[in-house]
Amino acid sequence: MDNDNLLLDFSNNSSTSIHIIWLFSFIFLLIIIFLILYIKILRTNIKTKKKIKRVLKKKFETELIIYLYSEEEGEGISPEQEVILNKLKKYLNNPFERKIMVSTFLKLRNEISGETVELIFKLYNQLGLSDFAIAKLKSKKWNIVVEGIRELTLFHIVEAHTAIDSLKNHPRKEVQKEILLYLLNIFNFKGLVFLDTLTTPLSEWDQIELMEVLQRFDAQDIPDIRPWLKSSNDSVVIFTLKLAKTYIQMEAEQELMELLQHQNVTIRVKAIDVLSYLNVLGAKEILKDNFNTLHEEEQIALMDMMLNIYQPSDVPFILENIHHKNFAIKSTLLQILKKIDLETYNSIASSSTDEEFIKIIKHLENY
After folding, report:
1. Which of 54, 72, 133, 137 is placed for a possible disulfide with 78 were both Cys, Cβ 3.0 to 4.6 Å?
2. Residue 215 included in any domain
3. Contacts by 309-318, CB closer than 8 A, 24 or more apart
4. 325 lies in a domain?
5. Helix then strand then coil, % of the chain, to nearest 5
6. pLDDT by residue (tens digit) across 158-172?
């Protein structure tokens, strides 16, 4: 009797467990079917969008090329251009279609040059595409803001200056860098005015990008860089030192000399490099007089300067420091001595028992 009850209980419990298992299996099956359908719909949408994008891109390219080569003399637009303008305006309200149009503009902008580029800029403005780009500047997403600034830069939208300038204190460095690139591309050297108030650091990569942009402009238009050499922002000073060297700013000699006392050793070293490049002899004498108080990086920088601008009057300084503990400094001093006083150099070379001296001298025999 007890056994029969146990079997009945087990059977009932098993039935419940089986029902639960079947229920979960059915739910999982529905989920799988839903996911398969969703993926298929997603793929279909992607394929459809790609097809639409391909068709629209080809259409926009054709319309734009016809527009560019339908220009008539005078400031107005031709009847044919007017027709194309009206056609393109129909696509502006659809974000997807507008994005394809802008990408087509960008593609053509990179493929053409001269007066045709100005026509592209003009058409971009006539369609009001700049308004949509400016609207991106109000986005809470920093990458959208960057996208807007970049677009306004590429199409030289001067009217966006005020809106972009209002973002100069944006917390994202990426946004700030795009603002700097906008200012330089639109206003050339005058765009360097941002250095007056810049408080955030300019990374090394930022500086490289800015220098690349500046090299496209006439060097004669460079403004007075001296105020930036006194900036409280160390990265601004370092960037300005690059400007001083690249554009041979001799008029900034006094400010460059003052940087030899700067609290940042990197700035002091870079200032030595620029002064050496500009052949400022006075800097060399100051550094020689204070050699023992200099940071080792500055001492090495002075060696590079002396290799660039050495004189017979340097011999006493060389002899005083020729036993320096730093191998590179010792080697440079011997190298300079050989150039300006061969007799003294030969005397030291023949009588020295210093192993490092002997290594250096053997090396210098090939020069």
Report:
1. 72
2. no
3. 309/276, 309/279, 309/281, 309/284, 310/336, 310/339, 310/340, 311/281, 311/340, 312/340, 312/341, 314/288, 314/340, 315/340, 315/341, 315/344, 317/288, 317/291
4. yes
5. 80, 0, 20
6. 999 999 988 988 889
Angle between helix 115-126 and helix 95-111 axes, rounded to 10 deg:
170
Q: Is the pLDDT of residue 10 over 50?
A: no
Residue with tokens 């403005």: 125
Q: How far are the Cα atoms of 42, 118, 308, 324 from residue 284, in angstroms, in the given order?
A: 70, 51, 10, 18
pLDDT, mean over the chain? 86
In a domain, 50, yes or no: no
Count of the separate structural domains present in the chain = 1
Identity at 353, one-letter amino acid code: T
Short-list 155, 59, 147, 145, CA closest to 100: 59
| Average pLDDT for 69-85 | 75
Query: How confident is residue 14, by pLDDT bands cut at 50, 70 and 90?
Result: low
